[in-house]
Specification:
four-stranded antiparallel beta sheet, alpha/beta
Length: 229
C-alpha cells in the first residue's frame, strides 16, 4: 500500500467510480468530484495527482488547471488530462497549461494505471532531488543531512527514531498520522512493535524539543500531528 492521494474530476459519475475502484485496487487513496466547481471547494493541495476531464460545465478542465497553476498552494500538483478531445491543438493547450500527461477516451484502465504510476514516479523523483537540506520552524532547525536537531543553536539529543518521527511530522505540518502510519514508516523493517512504543517516543520527543513540544498535538482517536502556532 502506498500513500499517494489522487483526485478524479469528471462529470461522468460512472467513470469517476470506475477509476476510483481500479486505482484503489492499485493501492492509491482516491477521491472524486463531478465538476470543477466541486473540486475547487476541496483541499486540492493535499493531493499527489489530479485526473482531470477537459469538457465539463461552466469551468472546463483547462480553466481549472489554469486556476490551480496560478495558486502557489496547488501549482505543484501534477495533472493528467482525461478527455474525448484528442486534436493536436487540445493536446498542446493541455501541456502549455502544465499538464504532466494526456489520455484520450476511450482508454484502457491498464493504460491509466501505467500512466498514473509513471507521473507519480517522475514527480516523486523531482521532489526528492530538490528536497531541502534543512527544515526549520521558528528557532527549531532539523538538519536532514547531518541528522541533528537544534533549538536556538543548541543541539537536542534525539534518538534515530525520535529524529525520524519529528522529520515526518515537520515535513507534513497539520497532517495527522495514526500510530499505524508512524509504525509503517519509521519501524517498517521491524517484525513486531507495540502501539505504545509510539506514545513513549512522542512523550520523550516532546520533552527534548522544549517549547516546541506542545506543537506535537494528539488528535484523540486519530493520531499525532505537528501544528504550527
Amino acid at each position: 500500500m502506498n500513500d499517494y492521494r489522487i483526485l478524479v474530476v469528471d462529470d461522468e459519475e460512472d467513470l469517476c467510480e470506475i477509476l476510483k475502484f481500479n486505482l484503489e485496487n492499485e493501492g492509491y487513496e482516491v477521491d472524486t468530484a463531478n465538476s470543477a466547481e466541486e473540486a475547487l471547494r476541496m483541499d486540492i493541495g493535499r493531493y499527489n495527482l489530479l485526473l482531470l476531464d477537459v469538457m465539463m460545465g461552466e469551468i472546463s478542465g483547462f480553466k481549472m488547471a489554469s486556476l490551480l497553476k496560478k495558486d502557489k498552494k496547488t501549482a505543484h500538483v501534477p495533472i493528467i488530462f482525461i478527455t474525448a478531445k484528442d486534436t493536436e491543438n487540445d493536446t498542446v493547450t493541455g501541456f502549455n497549461l502544465g499538464a504532466d500527461d494526456y489520455i484520450s477516451k476511450p482508454f484502457s484502465l491498464r493504460e491509466v494505471a501505467v500512466r498514473v504510476k509513471a507521473v507519480l514516479r517522475r514527480t516523486q523523483q523531482a521532489e526528492t532531488e530538490r528536497a531541502p537540506e534543512q527544515i526549520t520552524y521558528k528557532s527549531l532547525v532539523l538538519d536532514i543531512i547531518k541528522k541533528k536537531v537544534s533549538i536556538d543553536g543548541e543541539e537536542a539529543p534525539l534518538t534515530k527514531k525520535e529524529f525520524e518521527i519529528l522529520l515526518l511530522l515537520l515535513q507534513n505540518k497539520g497532517r495527522v498520522f495514526s500510530r499505524e502510519d508512524i509504525l509503517g514508516r519509521i519501524w517498517s523493517d521491524e517484525v513486531y512493535v507495540l502501539d505504545r512504543t509510539i506514545d513513549v517516543n512522542i512523550t520523550r520527543l516532546r520533552k527534548k524539543i522544549g517549547i516546541y513540544g506542545k506543537c506535537i498535538v494528539t488528535r484523540l482517536g486519530y493520531g499525532y500531528c505537528f501544528e504550527a502556532e
